[in-house]
Amino acid sequence: MKQKLTALLPYALLLCADFYLLPLLIRDTGSAMLLLLAAMPLAAFLLAVHWGLRQGFCPLLSMAALALFLPSLPLFYNISAWVYGVFYALVVLAGTGVGRLFQGKR
Question: Model's pTM, two decimal places?
Fold first, then answer.
């Protein structure tokens, strides 16, 4: 388990960059929707696919995505945006699954 947590650290840092640096680019409603519905999920999905290729399927990264997104709510959004945390957790879960599918083909 300690190896999984150690391997999780760089991915968690990249998720933090996704959830805490990208919202700084929000200027209006259009850019907010583009970031929240396209750029941030795509970055999280690609990160999760990379995790799946290296570590296999593990819901630990998905739980980390949810846990890392929720503190960003009072900083950048309002409390009604909590559903995005669930959405990102599901996107990351799907990404780890896709990465696991292609893990043996490398």
Answer: 0.91
Residue 88 identity: Y
Element (H, E) at 98: helix 82-101
| Burial track 81-96 (b if 16+ CB lie within 10 A, e otherwise) | beebbebbbebbbbbb
Residue 104, pLDDT above cutoff 80: no
Which residue, among 55, 40, 42, 41, has the nearest Cα to 96 in the 3D structure?
55
- Which residue range is the domain that position 44 belongs to? 2-105
Instruction: Compute the distance between CA of residue 97 and CA of residue 105 in angstroms, rounded to an integer.
Output: 14
Q: How many domains does the chain have?
A: 1
